[in-house]
Amino acid sequence: MVEGGIAKADKTEFTECWRTAWRTPYIMRLALSAGIGGLLFGYDTGVISGALLYIRDDFESVDKKTWLQETIVSMAVAGAIVGAGCGGIINDRFGRKKSILSADFVFFIGAVIMAIAPAPWVIVVGRIFVGFGVGMASMTSPLYISESSPARIRGALVSTNGLLITGGQFLSYLINLAFTKAKGTWRWMLGVAGIPPVVQFVLMLSLPESPRWLYRQNKVDEARAILERIYPADEVDKEMKALASSIEAEKADEAAIGDNMFSKVKGAFTNTVVRRGLYAGITVQVAQQFVGINTVMYYAPTIVQFAGFASNSVALALSLITSGLNVVGTMISMAFVDRYGRRRLLMVSMIATIGFLVALSVVFIEASSHAPKVSAMETAQFGKNSTCPKYLTLSDTSKWSCMSCLKADCGFCANAASEFQPGACLADTKALKSTCHAQHRVFFENGCPSKFGFLAVVLLGLYIIAYAPGMGTVPWIVNSEIYPLRYRGIGGGIAAVSNWSSNLIVSETYLTLTEHLGAGGTFFLFAAISCVGLACIFWFVPETKGLQFEEVEKILEEGYRPDLCGGKKKRKNVDTV
User: Fold this and answer.
1) Which CATH class is domain 10-207?
2) Distance between CA 520 and CA 364 in Å, rounded?
3) Contact 285, 499 (CB under 8 A)
């Protein structure tokens, strides 16, 4: 998956969550209202993949400039990095509720800007706004849910936020598919994103601030009033005492490590235990992104077109399957992460993901090598002025295929009798595309007709299923368990920034990589990087299942080292990493 995560929650906790929510609906109202932030998060990461197809149709500059497509996609990630950073400051100063309301406002403005954008650069501005809102929501929504939930069902309720992220991605593909025939296509796709923040804004106006934040602001009576609506009457005093004790410990920690960002970061890296925890936390977050998952989330329809499905609507429909599988994989993780452990799930998921990346690479390379040939006769039917300029300069055209044509920035008009027979290589213009369609032919711009196309889509789905239960969700769980209590906030923040930064690198370079390496070569590159990630996970990430925080801290203090048989070795007092 993408950014966000699933909090630790076992089957018993989900059962208790259902019972508690049935007795106290107010708790579920709090969780679902705040969880719309996760829905926004998921919707934004999914909607651009379909909208981009139609943005390219409307703006020739976007269609011709790969870097501009990448920028439209990735600027939301850049905005999210800033939003997440600013979100922490806004959270602490103004409260969780106002942070969510601010994120809704910014997200809505971004959606409106994109929907009415007269030029590509305006879309980029809208994407930055939306990304800023996503970044704030990605950290604030889970925090609000966590601080407003009974401890016994906290993990299950925070899990609803992660589930809404994948649900938002699935919804975005449905919305994309619904507007493929509508006038304005991408404007509706991106504009609809403005509805959920309005709904959340209205809902949050009637909800209270986080009781924990209120208590820290010395608004004890207000905090107690909220807890009385969440807990049974006989538990309120106990929770107030626990809240007071927790905040006192938190303030003591701040006094020990400093209350400014520089002091906290410096303290994290000079502390041996925290530093080793960061090796594990950053490793899983960076590995999560460099398996290439967000190339699928942001460019799924384009990848499907690489596989030989030229129709935008068909590409979107097939992409819907991969998004649905991501939701299924997330549910699998929620069911098994406490049964089989974090490390094992990470390793198995990573190995399977690498296997499917290699398989995808082979399939795309085979599809490229078996691309239909270019026929001089078929090309001549459209006239010399319509022919791909580079094709006209060739002395020997016998070796040219559909892939050669596309690499020359031209289009391939498939044979009318069969897409797999030799076709015409034409200049890539809207007029010639329409002419090709008028002859009941298919015009290919991103990928070539291929008998391997359906296999590529199947492997893409298997790749998602392999990724989602382990690499998709476990990195966030590891980061919630690997740091000592006083450094948990700063450690998780550093790891999250590494995740967003890796996401930005991948999303900003994917199309450029496919231009130079091809789709097959790019997937193989991700597989190679993932092998390095697998080795780092094996070496740096200990198992944290069922361990108390003190036990995890002890493992890191002694120096975690695995052995080749799957066990672990501990080296005392050796700071080798």
Assistant:
1) mainly alpha
2) 5
3) yes
- Which among 458, 170, 476, 506 has a CA at the least distance from the CA of 326? 170
What's the chain's average pLDDT? Answer: 83
Q: How far apart are CA 414 and CA 421, in angstroms?
A: 8
Cα separation of the two ends of the chain? 29
Q: Residue 127 contacts by C-beta under 8 Å, 6 or more apart in sequence?
A: 48, 72, 73, 75, 76, 79, 110, 114
| Burial profile 104-130: b = 16 or more Cβ within 10 angstroms, e = fewer | bebbbbbbbbbbebeebeebbbbbbbb
Q: What is the pLDDT of residues 92-147, one digit of tens each?
A: 788 889 999 999 999 999 999 999 999 999 999 999 999 999 888 877 887 788 77
Half-sphere exposure of 47 (CA within 13 A, CB side): 30
Going from the C-alpha of 242 to that of each of 151, 248, 348, the distances in angstroms are 11, 10, 39
Asked whether the beta carbons of 231 and 30 are under 8 A apart, the reply is no
Closest CA to 294 of 472, 109, 158: 472
**Lowest-pLDDT range of 65-74, 405-414, 440-449, 473-482:** 473-482
* Rounded alpha-carbon distances, angstroms, from residue 276 to 200, 280, 481, 551, 553: 39, 7, 13, 14, 10
Q: What digits encode the pLDDT tens for the residues 319-372?
A: 777 777 777 776 776 666 666 778 888 899 999 999 999 999 999 888 888 899
Do the beta carbons of residue 432 and residue 388 sit within 8 Å? no
Residues forming beta bridges with residue 562, ordered by sequence position: 568
| Cα radius of gyration (the chain) | 26
User: Which helix (H) or strand (E) element contains residue 561?
Assistant: strand 560-562
Residues 9-12: contacts with CB under 8 Å, at least 24 apart: 9/153, 9/155, 9/156, 9/158, 9/159, 9/334, 9/338, 10/155, 10/338, 11/335, 11/338
Nearest to 8 by CA among 494, 510, 482: 482
Q: Which two tokens stand for residue 47?
A: 């909607």
Architecture of the structural domain at 259-370+450-577: Up-down Bundle (1.20)
Contact between residue 514 and residue 306 where contact means Cβ atoms under 8 Å apart: yes
Domain ranges of the chain: 10-207, 208-257, 259-370+450-577, 371-444
Domains 10-207 and 259-370+450-577 fall in the same CATH topology = yes
From residue 151, give the alpha-carbon distance in Å to each of 91, 97, 176, 382.
Answer: 21, 20, 38, 70
| Helix (H/G/I), strand (E/B), else coil: 412 | strand
Residue 133 CA to residue 494 CA, distance in Å, equals 19
State the angle between helix axes of 195-205 and 96-115 in degrees (0 to 180), rounded to the nearest 10: 160
Amino acid at 528: A
Q: What count of other Cβ atoms lies within 10 Å of the Cβ of residue 247?
A: 15
CB 463 within 8 A of CB 353: yes
- Secondary structure (3-state) at 218: coil
Question: Two tokens at 477?
Answer: 């769980």
CB-CB contact of 502 with 290 (8 Å): yes
Task: Identify which of 556, 409, 395 has the alpha carbon closest to the alpha carbon of residue 478.
Answer: 556
Give dist(CA 538, CA 544) in Å, integer: 14
Yes or no: say if 73 and 52 are a contact pair by the CB < 8 Å rule: yes
Structure tokens at 199: 């709904």
